[in-house]
Amino acid sequence: MEPTYSTTRPATGEKAIEQFKLNFNRALNGESIISEREMPFPGRSFWMRTEYSPVYEDKSIIGVSIMVTDIDERKDTCYK
After folding, report:
1. What is the CATH number of the domain that holds 67?
2. Is the pLDDT of residue 57 over 60?
C-alpha cells in the first residue's frame, strides 16, 4: 500500500494534537502517512516531516512507528 502524503499549514496547540491523533489512528488502521508541516515558534519556524507506519506482528497491527525528520533546509532551498 502506498503512503498517503500531505503538506499542512502551521498548527499549534489543540489543532496540532488533533492532527497527530488523526494520523496516529489512521496508522493503527493500517495506513502509512507522510506529513510535512511548518512548525511556528516565536521568532522562527521550521519544517518537519513525520512518517506514521503501522507495526505488525504476524498479521495483526500491534502499534505505530513514528519517524520525525527536520526538512527545514530542503524547504528553504525549494522556496528560494
Report:
1. 3.30.450.20
2. yes
